[in-house]
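OP here, attaching both records as promised.
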Amino acid sequence: MSVSDMFTALQGVLTADQDIREEIRKVVQALEQTAREILTLLQGVHQGAGFQDIPKKCQKAREHFGTVRTQLESLKTKFPADQYYRFHEHWRFVLQRLVFLAAFVVYLESETLVTREAVAEILGIEADRERGFHLDIEDYLSGVLILASELARLAVNSVTAGDYSRPLRISTFINELDSGFRLLNLKNDSLRKRYDGLKYDVKKIEEVVYDLSIRGLNKEAAVGAGGEK
């Protein structure tokens, strides 16, 4: 084979690879748009009247996840099944955002931490790497850390809305989350940096709870803690 033939063949490989990346990019753009729509919907819970509409907002968000599942199903077809990590960077950030949104919905519904398996089911993908297009553990953890920041914001806005028991429950949840992350030996630089931000979320929520205590509102919150969340 001549040098010219060799490079012609290489160009063919490069072109095929570029075509795959372009197809992936189109689907990822659609996923990002759907993620923005879900986020816009859920941001309403931070407003005063939004607390009364939480169940309705969560239901609508879950309907949007139907679109996410369809888009992810399309994404699976755009590259060879055994090359997941070759193209992973293209959808990593949007997948982390979708994990956060799924985790936020589940938290708003039940005030519990969604499992990786449950997120994978919501997104319509696999939890196990061996089964194909899956939810990478580090993507799951990154999404959970985004949730922590969102809940720190929710704690502040809960006080503004006159809901004094919610920050106490959020504080308990975030502290349990922090304890869980302390059990992990994180090697990924990006994930480690994001985890380092968790301590600021913990501190922010602690300040909210302390302020409630100083103002005597924690007693009111304790009285209402046995009622509806």
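Record two, same layout:
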Amino acid sequence: RCVCYGLGRFGRCPAARYQLAFLLLLLDELRVPPARCALFDPAFSEREAAALRALGLRLLPENEEGKHGVEGAATLFYMVHCGKALYNNLLWSNWSPAALSKLVIIGNSFRGIEERLLSRILERDYSYIAKVLRGVEEVALPSHPRYLDTFNDTSVHWFPLDKLQELSPEVWEFMEEPMYQDCEDLEIIRKGE
């Protein structure tokens, strides 16, 4: 399965078109049928939504705010240039070694997030990203001069079960839903906004 968040206005934006093309090639390479790929971006126009349906892709009916569970199935999350809260919500909604070990994220580098944020901000606002840093493997996509703006700071992330099981039991006990009241740079469109 595949879930794609935040693709953007590919009818107007060349970078979003390249990201869509890469997604389609990736689905083909991984032999994921288009019908097993669900997308959501509140910015999609009616024409863009129709084009995605014509490609055989599914549109999610509502804004999940990134809170999509893997439900026991291996799932690729394609989230290029999404906000930190979206990644944090995704981790929270799959917060167990069994669930996290079934997901792969193609999106902003978690190491880059760690390097750019003060540790107290990372732990306060994006605690699930902060807690999983020692349990994630990450490989940056190779850079290409033509696509620097399209895939810059993009990595493939996966969560090996043995690494997750090495984390302290306390890491898994705290499962409070993220709220983001004090977050100054919230990059997420919430339900109803």
